[in-house]
Amino acid sequence: WLRISGKSGSGKTYLLDQLSGIRQCQFNRLEFSTDPNRDTAPRHYYLEQDIFFKSGTIEETLFASKSEYDSVISLLGLSQLKLLNSLTVNNLSGGQKQRLAIARMICSKPNLLFMDEATSGLDLVNEKNALDLIRQLLPMTIVVFVSHSEHVSRYADLTWDVENEKLQRNT
User: Fold this and answer.
1) Of 63, 95, 154, 168, which sees the most CB atoms within 10 A?
2) DSSP characters for 87-111?
3) Structure confidence by residue, pLDDT tens digits, 105-161
4) Torsion angle of alpha carbons 83, 89, 95, 99, nearest 10°?
5) How far apart are CA 35 and CA 142, in angstroms?
6) Under 8 Å CB-to-CB from 29, ≥6 apart: which residues?
7) Number of Cα atoms under 13 Å in the Cβ half of residue 103
């Protein structure tokens, strides 16, 4: 897991956008090595702090099989939402939306995941649970994340600091 850190406004999100391909890169080519036993076509996923869902029921937003939906929703502590079958995503709290977005990401099984403050709306217990689930259920996924949370920083295997428009490896 790679953490990109720095002060607010230092360019962390801009760098994450470039790495993910959302913005035009200033360098020629960037390659991430993935597990050769998985699909060769990269499956990228960008998980942001501000979540957008189309109108619809919670089950419709996950794009998953019924068994996968039930399992991931339960693991993320959203089981009570299954009881409210007609509830739409627009009726959820910010933290519930973030957990639902994480569930949707897990169901998509990306091999390259970009997260920009993706757990900032969660309390420490739900944040830890979500990150532990990502590690457990997607062990071969390369994760590049931006977070100001010291708790989340503990998940990083490597940290890059953005300061004065320069990128430095944090040792």
Assistant:
1) 95
2) -BGGGS-HHHHHHHHHHHHHHH--S
3) 888 889 999 998 888 888 999 999 999 999 999 999 999 998 877 788 888 898 888
4) 70
5) 10
6) none
7) 32
Cβ proximity of 103 and 47 under 8 Å: no
Classify the phi-psi angles of 86: left when phi > 0, otherwise alpha if psi is within -120 to 50, otherwise beta: alpha
Separation of alpha carbons 75 and 105, rounded Å: 14
Specify whether the CB–CB gap between 118 and 102 falls below 8 A. Answer: yes
Are 99 and 126 in contact, with CB atoms under 8 Å apart? yes
Q: What is the pLDDT of residue 39?
A: 53
C-alpha dist (Å) from residue 85 to 56, 60, 62, 155: 11, 11, 14, 35
Which of 64, 153, 142 lies closest to 106 in space, CA to CA? 64
Mean pLDDT (whole number) for 40-44: 67
Which residue from 158, 149, 163, 161 is spatially nearest to 116, judged by alpha carbons?
149
Q: Which two tokens stand for residue 14?
A: 């801009």
Strand partners, 161: 5, 168
Token digits of residue 143: 């994760």
Please tell me the predicted confidence (pLDDT) of residue 28.
42
